[in-house]
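Example record

One chain of 193 residues, shown exactly as stored in the release files.
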Amino acid sequence: MNIRETMDWKDDPATEKQLLYICLLHHQPDRPLTKHEASELIAKAEQDPETPQAFRKMYEAIRNAHEEERNFAESRDDFAFYLRQNVADAKEEVANAQAKDVENLRAHLRSAIEERLTFWKDTFRDVADTEEYSLQGIELHLEFGHRFHIPTSDQVQTLINALDASSATWDKDDLSLFYKFLEQNFPELVRIP
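Predicted structure tokens for this chain:
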């Protein structure tokens, strides 16, 4: 390996961890960053006494949440799909439950539905304002969600229902469909064209 090859890492795209930390600092780059550029931004922020300790703690929380997320989903790209499956499994449990178990299982179903709604609503919130940290949710916010005002839970559920009815794997295969449907059905929520 020559020196030129070892220096090429600087031009590689910034890592997920770098982008998370930069996002926590309320810095939204106007273009993709390289590893080197992201590293410089982070180093400046860590040396800046103005960078609140709370952001560092949030970064740790996100990193921990990401590790938990990986335990639940096969990969970071499957978390939205995992939440859908969790709801489907809970519905099936309610349908097959004995009478004495129905109420507890309905509570679990409500919780699974709420967790899925929260995930999708969080994709519209700035990272510091999210209710549940999810790496996939943050990535979706940076790619799509920042362009919209936060929809209501009813609007999100309407979109989820329509998409679920149209495809068994939309939230695994093409998450951009959610934002396309949102823009088509609720154009008043578009903040940035």
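Notes: The radius of gyration is 19 Å.
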